[in-house]
């Protein structure tokens, strides 16, 4: 039976509680804005198709940045122009979701021009709704790539001059030249006839994704009465009479009858397969319980910075600390930070090991600095928290830290490492010295962490000896 | 009580109307007009003149606001009180 009541689609929130202002009933759009008309068509289609729980809408930057105020679906708000890239990621990870990229012409055709072409060219299984209002609405009516020749905007006060600003980009035509897209149409959000066409196009573009057929793109010519300085009926007339001359309406590509639907397998990996995929053998991941040391108050929940030359194994040192912390069921984070030159340059990493949730993986004020070259000592010594700890390799660093309000432990790590077989394991001597001195992690968990983290297991014999030597040195 | 509508009509929620006049412009039988009263946000809202709506639904899609217009077509089964509530 045909619908006998046309009312606010159920895809919209009943009350827009996500809106921060007092008015939770009305949209933030200007009167007569085309965004609202397109929203309604999309909301209606989602409701009619019964896919509300599967839809994820990518919110752009532009006047429609607040799509999540209105649609009771999944959302992610993304950086300007990056919606197709984020849509790609989400769709590939969740092929059973219906991913809708909603973008304005500044977002899609200017800053995001590259993203959309590549997503289209890869034939991503996403639906793109492209609102072409020939202007940047949100920022106050600047020229967009779609601004018509001669059209006045705040950045083309004498009218767009094609010799200076080039020609309007015809995105639908451009995308239709690519091999992968399945369906490309341009519609206009104007009179009754055009709205009926637009409604059909919106539904088709979503259906193509539901049928796993591929990339669908609908460009909608849309009124921006505010940006154009017109009243809403005149704005829609202008679309019909002027804009469509430059941006003709119609289907530019439709191979939806010919393409084979893709079958997305929902692959659920068994624990064994997951372990295999990430390259750890079954044994190391069993639920072994690790006994934590009792740690002195001042060494608890350390924020650690490890720093030295690239090639000294600075990042590995941090990684083993974090991995061992994880085995002991602490919250941990590890954030590498490379110098511009990886080898020979400086490298450092930030490690948190905490009984509490970690608010930020960044360690800007370390409570422990493990440092293996002089430039890093000079750079990071001033940042150490008062009462904190500095462990430095005094076989390489020929100065002493000057801070009097921190604990300073020199460890001739490179020399010790050389004595037991290789200067390469100086990082492990430092690690041993740190855990031995503070007791923050047990030798057992650190040894197991080594086996998880280090790919060439045959090196671990020497690594373990180096760690033990480090522990011994500070005991 | 539920009744079956013998005649189409529309309802405009005046607080959700922004007075853009697109519905008025598009109605093929010209049964919508702008009110000389304005709502709490200062917009002169659209009104149904009370008779003559064919239930074509064109104004519903012309309106950018999610809930400003509801169209009840002939044959719709509704609560009787819909007719009286405004
Ligand atoms: C990286 C970045 N550059 C620039 C901006 C400023 N900015 C905000 S919205 C916008 C243009 C929006 O225009 P459009 O995509 O056409 O959407 P509309 O507002 O017209 O719906 C720009 C340039 C930004 N937010 N982020
Ligand atoms: S500025 Fe233009 S695009 Fe933005 S809400 Fe207003 S009318 Fe719509
Ligand atoms: S449903 Fe059709 S006839 Fe009735 S008010 Fe709306 S546009 Fe006019
Ligand atoms: S189209 Fe909607 S917002 Fe515009 S005047 Fe009509 S009811 Fe009001």
From TrEMBL, chain A:
Keyword Protease present in the record's keywords: the answer is no
Instruction: State the Gene Ontology terms under molecular function.
Output: oxidoreductase activity, acting on the aldehyde or oxo group of donors, iron-sulfur protein as acceptor; thiamine pyrophosphate binding
Q: Please name the InterPro entries in this protein's record.
A: 2-oxoacid:Fd_oxidoreductase (IPR051457), Pyrv/ketoisovalerate_OxRed_cat (IPR019752), Pyrv_flavodox_OxRed_cen (IPR002869), THDP-binding (IPR029061), TPP_enzyme_TPP-bd (IPR011766)
Keywords in UniProt for this one?
A: Oxidoreductase
What Gene3D superfamilies does this protein map onto?
Answer: 3.40.50.970, Pyruvate-ferredoxin oxidoreductase, PFOR, domain III
Sorted alphabetically, the Gene Ontology BP terms of this entry are:
cellular respiration; small molecule metabolic process
The Pyruvate/ketoisovalerate oxidoreductase catalytic domain covers which part of the protein?
310-472
What stretch or stretches form a coiled coil here? none
Task: Note the Pfam families from the entry.
Answer: POR, TPP_enzyme_C
What are the residue boundaries of the Thiamine pyrophosphate enzyme TPP-binding domain, all occurrences included? 74-219
Keyword Endoplasmic reticulum included in the entry's annotation: no
Give the PANTHER family listed for this entry.
Answer: 2-OXOGLUTARATE OXIDOREDUCTASE SUBUNIT KORB-RELATED, SUBUNIT OF PYRUVATE:FLAVODOXIN OXIDOREDUCTASE
Q: What is this protein called?
A: 2-oxoisovalerate ferredoxin oxidoreductase beta subunit
Automatic annotation (TrEMBL), chain B:
List residues of the 4Fe-4S ferredoxin-type domain.
8-37, 44-74
Pfam hit, one: Fer4_7
Q: Does the keyword Metal-binding apply?
A: yes
Q: What keywords sit in the KW lines?
A: Iron, Iron-sulfur, Metal-binding
InterPro entries for this protein: 4Fe4S_Fe-S-bd, 4Fe4S_Fe_S_CS
**What are the protein's GO molecular function terms?**
iron-sulfur cluster binding; metal ion binding
UniProt-recorded name of the protein: 2-oxoglutarate ferredoxin oxidoreductase subunit delta
């Amino acid at each position: 039976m045909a619908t006998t009541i046309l009312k606010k689609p159920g895809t919209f929130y009943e009350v827009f509680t996500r809106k921060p202002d007092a008015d939770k009933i009305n949209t933030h759009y200007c009167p007569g804005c085309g965004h609202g008309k397109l929203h309604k068509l999309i909301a209606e289609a989602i409701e009619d198709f019964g896919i509300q729980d599967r839809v994820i809408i990518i919110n752009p930057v532009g006047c429609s940045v607040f799509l999540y105020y209105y649609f009771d679906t999944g959302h992610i708000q993304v950086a300007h122009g990056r919606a197709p890239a984020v849509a790609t990621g989400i769709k590939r990870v969740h092929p059973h979701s219906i991913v809708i990229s909603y973008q304005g012409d500044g977002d899609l055709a200017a800053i995001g021009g590259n993203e959309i072409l590549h997503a289209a060219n890869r034939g991503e299984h996403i639906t793109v709704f492209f609102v072409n209002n020939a202007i940047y609405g949100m920022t106050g009516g600047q020229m967009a790539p779609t601004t018509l020749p001669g059209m006045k905007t705040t950045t083309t006060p004498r009218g767009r001059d094609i010799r200076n600003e080039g020609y309007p980009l015809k995105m639908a035509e451009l995308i239709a030249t690519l091999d992968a897209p399945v369906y490309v149409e341009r519609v206009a959000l104007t009179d009754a006839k055009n709205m009926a066409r637009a409604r059909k196009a919106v539904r088709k573009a979503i259906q193509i994704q539901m049928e796993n057929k591929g990339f669908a793109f609908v460009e909608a010519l849309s009124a921006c009465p505010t940006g154009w300085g017109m009243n809403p009926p005149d704005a829609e007339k202008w679309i019909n009479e002027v804009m469509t001359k430059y941006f003709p309406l119609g289907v530019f590509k439709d191979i939806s009858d010919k393409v084979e639907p893709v079958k997305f397998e929902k692959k659920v990996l068994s624990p064994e397969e997951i372990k295999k995929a990430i390259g750890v053998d079954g044994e190391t991941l069993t639920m072994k319980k690790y006994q934590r040391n009792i740690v002195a108050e001042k060494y608890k929940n350390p924020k650690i910075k490890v720093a030295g030359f690239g090639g000294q194994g600075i990042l590995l040192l941090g990684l083993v600390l974090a991995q061992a912390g994880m085995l002991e069921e602490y919250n941990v984070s590890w954030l590498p930070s490379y110098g511009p030159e990886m080898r020979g340059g400086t490298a450092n990493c930030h490690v948190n090991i905490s009984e509490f949730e970690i608010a930020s993986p960044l360690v800007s004020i370390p409570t422990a600095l493990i440092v293996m070259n002089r430039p890093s000592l000079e750079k990071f010594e001033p940042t150490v928290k008062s009462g904190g700890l500095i462990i430095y390799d005094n076989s390489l660093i020929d100065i002493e830290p000057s801070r009097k309000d921190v604990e300073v432990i020199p460890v001739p790590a490179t020399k010790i490492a050389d004595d037991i077989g290789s200067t390469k394991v100086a990082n492990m001597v430092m690690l041993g010295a740190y855990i031995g001195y503070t007791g923050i992690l047990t030798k057992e968990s650190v040894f197991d962490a080594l086996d998880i983290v280090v790919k060439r297991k045959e090196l671990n014999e020497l690594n373990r000896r180096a760690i033990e030597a480090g522990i011994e040195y500070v005991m | 009580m539920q009744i079956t509508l013998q005649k189409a009509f529309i309802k405009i929620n005046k607080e959700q109307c922004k007075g853009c006049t697109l519905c008025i412009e598009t109605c093929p039988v010209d049964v919508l007009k702008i009110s000389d009263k304005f709502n709490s946000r200062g917009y002169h809202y659209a009104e149904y003149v009370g008779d003559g709506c064919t239930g074509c639904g064109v104004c519903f899609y012309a309106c950018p606001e999610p809930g400003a217009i509801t169209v009840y077509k002939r044959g719709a089964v509704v609560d009787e009180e819909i007719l009286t509530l405004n």
